[in-house]
Amino acid sequence: MQYEQLKTLETKQARQHIRASEYTGHTAGIAKSNLQGNVVILPLKYAFDFLRYCQRNPQSCPLITVSDTGNPNLSELGVDIDIRTDVPEYCVYKNGHLINTTTDILSLWQTGFVTFVIGCSFSFEQELLNHNIPIRHIENNKVVSMYLTNINTRPSGIFSGSMVVSMRPMKLEHIASACIISAKYSKAHGSPVHIGDPSIIGIRDINQPNWGDKTQFKASEVPVFWACGVTPQNAVKAACPAICITHSPGKMLITDLLA
Amino acid sequence: MQYEQLKTLETKQARQHIRASEYTGHTAGIAKSNLQGNVVILPLKYAFDFLRYCQRNPQSCPLITVSDTGNPNLSELGVDIDIRTDVPEYCVYKNGHLINTTTDILSLWQTGFVTFVIGCSFSFEQELLNHNIPIRHIENNKVVSMYLTNINTRPSGIFSGSMVVSMRPMKLEHIASACIISAKYSKAHGSPVHIGDPSIIGIRDINQPNWGDKTQFKASEVPVFWACGVTPQNAVKAACPAICITHSPGKMLITDLLA
Q: Can you count the helices (H) and strands (E) in chain A?
């Protein structure tokens, strides 16, 4: 299943192809008007510290839902959703090290697992496109560029670390609208955290993102930075829990909720 | 210290009198423009279930903050705040039974305690008064009437139960404004959950509140109901944790944050 083909499908159909591992790529621009989610799965013993971390850092970690303990279904996001199969690609971390990527986690599931679904900036991108604000990484079929910054998050127990941001190049005349539009999406990171000079937030080289693909700039475009759902992934990685499973950056859970 | 005198004081001064147990009454109308909070203190073992309960029921349980584990200070709400002394009166529950009310919990504090501060409808009352919408229980120096309803909350682990509501009588011409104004206060329960006939939400007798004082109605006034921070207290009581400490209904933590 190719990206261009998946883009034409309804939400439930797109998710079925993902569930069957027929599509394992990024989800930007797929199921356009639906809320997409970052996924973090942790054993119960880490769940309180992590939920408090989300509560303390709502712009990086806007919580959409928290599962019942041990239940792989997320029926409030879509009656058919099974978190063990419905993400295009998963990252499996043990003691803070990425040990595997996989297209399902059926064999890894534990009865004490808790799933956290966190909003994603993809949710407001369609609205930007509707306002004729181009999104480069969608145009070019790339994963959005993501960077580690020097902006501290508020720690909670074992979880702490710097904010990760996603970046979209914008023409000056689009920046105000992009701020106003994204601000309405509080469950999708809200308004930008920084506009312009990347060095101010600790990014040395805009052409070397820490995650995702390099982004092509056009003349007189400015980088605009939004808080990113990889922030909690990064905090989890640093905390070195015995096991943690996340989505692969850019490859999100697609929900039935409207963005 | 009398209520009328406390009403004239600045926030920090009012809190000092509360800290010294010189005032142990209700806090409606005190430190007028500041955010007030419902307080729930639980051992760590119950903290994840309870935090997820708040996340799932944001209108009843709009979280203001969650403390670090074992730390009685809530510096983000006020640098001097010590949750062991700064509430006018506490309720101490053991295994779901109210065993004591007290004006400080210094001798009861445990290293594994976690404090949850939840928004309170008092926060929007000043704004209603600013719009010339009378608040009867403030006029009459009473505790707002609170009722158990038949509206279910979303359960989380051991926590579940019906929504508790607070009620204010309103003239018809004030109801639309009261809805619009309170809707802006999402951290203070937001807009009403019900307007009019109490029996629809399971309240048999408006003159017999489950908590607080009976409210006097004037001619052609309608009862308006808001989700109430006693909801999580009620859920906690039903869950029968070994120990739980809350504020006494109507006697809130006064913070330095603006409402």
A: 7, 11
Contacts of B119 in chain A (CB under 8 A): none
Which residue of A lies nearest to B63 if distances are taken between CA atoms? Answer: A55
Q: How far apart are the first and last CA of chain B?
A: 25
* Cα–Cα distance, A60 to B75 (Å, whole number): 22
Tokens at A162, concatenated: 């710097």
What sign results for the dihedral spanned by CA atoms B196, B197, B200, B203? positive
One digit per residue, the tens of pLDDT, for chain B of length 259 reads 888 899 999 999 999 999 999 999 989 889 888 889 999 999 999 999 999 999 999 999 999 999 999 999 999 999 999 999 999 999 999 999 999 999 999 999 999 999 999 998 877 888 899 999 999 998 998 889 999 999 999 999 999 999 999 999 999 999 999 999 999 998 889 999 999 999 999 999 999 999 999 999 999 999 999 999 989 988 998 999 999 999 998 899 999 998 7
Q: Which residues have C-beta within 8 Å of that of residue A196, sequence separation ≥ 6?
A: A222, A223
Spatial distance between the Cα atoms of B17 and B24, rounded to a whole number of angstroms? 9
Whole-prediction pTM: 0.90
User: What b-and-e string marks burial along B62-82, b requiring 16 or more CB atoms within 10 Å of the CB?
Assistant: bbbbbbebeebbbebbbeebb
- The amino acid present at B116, given as its one-letter code, is F
Residue pair B209/B146 in contact by the 8 Å Cβ criterion: yes
* Minimal CA separation from A115 to chain B, in Å: 12
Angstrom distance (rounded) from CA A251 to CA A224? 21
A18 SS3 class: helix
User: Measured between alpha carbons, how far is A3 from A33 in angstroms, rounded to an integer?
Assistant: 17
CA B89 to chain centre: 12
Q: B47 to chain A: which residues are within 8 Å by CB?
A: 48
